[in-house]
Amino acid sequence: MKRKLIPFVVLSLFGVLTSCGGNAGVANKEKPLVFFNRQPSDPTTGEIDMKTMNFSDKTYYVGFDAAGGGAVQGKLITDYLKTADLAKLDRNKDGKIGYVLCIGDVGHNDSKARTQGIREALGTWNGDTNPTTRKEGKVKVGDKEVPVVELEAKAMTGNDGSTWNATAATEAMGTWATQYGDQIDLVISNNDGMAMGCLQASNYPTGVPIFGYDANYDAVAAIGQGKLTGTVSQNVDAQATATLQVIRNLLDGKDPVKYGITEATADGSKISAELEYRADTKALLAKNSAVTKANYQQYAEGGRDTGIKQSTAEKKKVLLTIYNSADNFLSSSYVPALKYYAPLLNIDLNIVQGDGQNEASCLDKFTNLDQYDGYAVNMVKTNSGTNYTDKLKY
Ligand code: BGC
User: Fold this and answer.
1) Which of 114, 214, 285, 379 for a ligand 1 pocket mutation test, highest count of atoms within 8 Å of Cβ?
2) In what helix (H) or strand (E) does residue 351 lie, and over which residues does it extend?
3) How many CB atoms lie within 10 A of CB 219?
4) With CB atoms counted within 10 Å of each terminal CB, which end of the chain scores lower, N or C?
């Protein structure tokens, strides 16, 4: 019995010595750097910022298929309309479908893709994602083809300058309901936070169909209660796990975009959902799926990926930034997922959060970099990539 204790003690001590993190001797620029949720890109053209992505061979992006997601949201809406009753939907009986659109952030790829997907599906797409660029479209409601008008689209920027702002959406919806009255037949939003914000308006036109994006738990519950008509899941569990797994893989010398992602780890762990790797932009992307009353229960709170098993790999320390502590999707969906999966992946995660408007609110907390084995970055502005890589140059 006693003799067996010695190797145990030696092994435990070895474990302690090797699990301290800090990666002594490794320059910060050699450590893994994963951008997530806000893809380094030009806010106007949407072009991917490859200078940032090529900072090192350990720099990656984890997100979801933004363009595909826009198309899924568009189809969600047209599928709904196909089975809708025009007499009920067209509230003022003018033979037209009028909708209002909440835009999240005019300089964010995800937001642009959704605006485009919605407008393309409804025929109102007129070449760019600006709030005022649109044309009259046509869509099938039941078996009739009817004209569609985008009454107004607005970027929901808060008084403090933060984007994707749910309170701004509540205010805008209040104004729209007064201004457009029963011309509004549909309400569409680039995310759930703003859609739920619209529903908060005291004069929200009862029963008007409303669509969001993200499948946040409160939004999924609202679908169950018949308040929200539909949303799109961008598979937050797959994204949060992948963000951490890519960092782990780069530290453990495994294939960064396959191990635990498309193939099982030695511990038998693998993300259940499918992710696609796009080598040209170094982007690992989750898939989107439509959520409606017919399937919302599959997306209800508490459903975690049981494919993720406890890792026995050495513990690593990761610093992770969140652009806005008040962002609905990040705070109610992404951060809880990160907190659930990090211990399973043996990652000691330090999450620091910004204010959604000043890059400095995140950069000021992107410090003590030598103490970490890797970094995960969610920028305030999509063109701020080099502010982070500049801090890691040494
Ligand atoms: C989400 C939004 C969120 C934004 C933040 C998007 O992918 O759908 O809800 O506000 O990311 O970057």
Assistant:
1) 214
2) strand 347-353
3) 30
4) N
**Cα–ligand 1 centroid distance for 253 (angstroms):** 31
334 Cβ closer than 6 Å to some ligand 1 atom: no
Q: Which residue has the tokens 């309309």?
A: 81
* pLDDT tens digits along 69-121: 999 999 999 999 999 999 999 999 999 999 999 999 999 999 999 999 999 99
How far is residue 18's CA from residue 313's CA, in Å, rounded to a whole number? 11
Concatenated DSSP letters of 275-321: EEEEGGGTEEEEPPEEE-TTTGGGG-TT---TT-----SPPEEEEEE
| 191 CA from centroid of ligand 1 (Å) | 7
Q: Is 164 in the pocket of ligand 1 (CB under 6 A)?
A: yes
| Ligand 1 atom at shortest distance from the alpha carbon of 111 | 6
Asked whether the CA dihedral 75, 77, 79, 82 is positive or negative, the reply is negative
Token pair for residue 295? 């399937």
Contact yes or no for 268/309 (Cβ under 8 A): yes
- Could you give the C-alpha distances from 301 to 30, 220, 221, 332, in angstroms and in order? 38, 8, 8, 11
334 within 8 A of 242, measured Cβ to Cβ: no
Residues with Cβ within 8 Å of 99's Cβ and at least 6 positions away in sequence, in order, are 122, 148, 149, 150, 151, 184, 185, 186, 187, 188
pTM: 0.90
Indicate whether residue 214 lines ligand 1 (CB < 6 A): yes
d(CA 21, CA 18): 7
Q: Residue 348 is encoded by which pair of tokens?
A: 């000691």
Q: Which atom of ligand 1 is nearest to the CA of 110?
A: 7
Give 319's contacts (C-beta < 8 A, 6+ positions apart).
350, 352, 366, 368, 369, 372, 374, 375, 376
Give the H/E segment covering residue 353. strand 347-353
